[in-house]
Amino acid sequence: MSRSRLMVTNFIGLIVILALLIGGGYYYVQKSNYITTDNAKVSGDVYNVVAPAAGKVASWTVEEGNDVSKDAEIAKIQAEKGSVAAKVPADGKIIQTNVKENQMVQAGQQIATEVDMKDLFIVANVKEDQLKDIKEGDDVDVTVDGDSSAKIDGKVEEIGYATNSLSSLTSNSSSDGNYTKVSQTVPVKISISNYSEHVLPGMNAEVKISKD
C-alpha cells in the first residue's frame, strides 16, 4: 500500500473513531441527565355540553372552531314546559358539534364539546423504572409533531398514581403458573407554555425531562 493511501486510510479510521466517541459521549450525557419518550400526546380539559331537557333545538348559535365564554348560551331547546337554554360550562373553543337546528334531543344528550385551548398540556407515558428520577417541577423540553420546529417549555405538573394498564397490579400469568413480566408506563402530566395555535389536542409529542 502506498504511503498516501495509508495516510488516507488512517485519517478515515481516525474520523470514524472520533465520531463514535462523540456519539457515545452525547448518548451518555443524554442518558445521564434526561428522560426522553415519544409516547406522549397533547391534551386539554375537555367539557361536554349537554341538552338540559328533551325537546327540539329551536336555535343553534355556534360552529366548530368558535371561541366561547363560560355560561354562554349556544342553543335553545323547546321543551314541553317552555324554552330552555343550553350553556357552556367553561371558557374554551368548540371542537365538535353533534346536533343541528330543529333536531330532536334527549335530556342529557351531548350536543357539543369544547376544550380550553389556552391551557393545553402533555400527557407523557414514562416507564415505571424511570419514575424515581422525576419529580414535580422538573423542567421539560417538548416537541409537538404539528409544530416540530418550535421548542416548547414545560414542567412536570403531576405524576400518576397508577400504571396505564390495570393488569400490572397482578402478574400476567397463564394456567400453568408461568408469567411474563411486562414493563409498565405511568402517565405524567406536563404543563406547557409558549406554544402556538398549531398545537392541537391529540397531536403526538416528544418530551425530554431533566433528571433530578
Characterise the protein shown here.
This protein has 212 residues and is mostly beta strands. It is 15% helix and 41% strand. The strands form three sheets. A six-stranded antiparallel barrel has the order 1-10-13-12-11-14. It starts with a helix and ends with a strand.
Average pLDDT across residues?
86
Strand order of the largest sheet: 1-10-13-12-11-14
Q: Judging from the principal axes of the Cα atoms, what is the shape?
A: elongated
* Strands, total number: 14
Helix content: 10-25%
* Strand percentage: 35-45%
Unreliable sequence segments: none
Run of helices and strands: HEEEEEEEEEEEEEE
- Structural category is mainly beta
**How many strands, which pairing sense, and closed or not: the largest β-sheet?**
6 strands, antiparallel, barrel
Ends apart, CA distance between termini: 54 Å
Count of DSSP H/I helices:
1
Q: Any idea what the radius of gyration is?
A: 26 Å
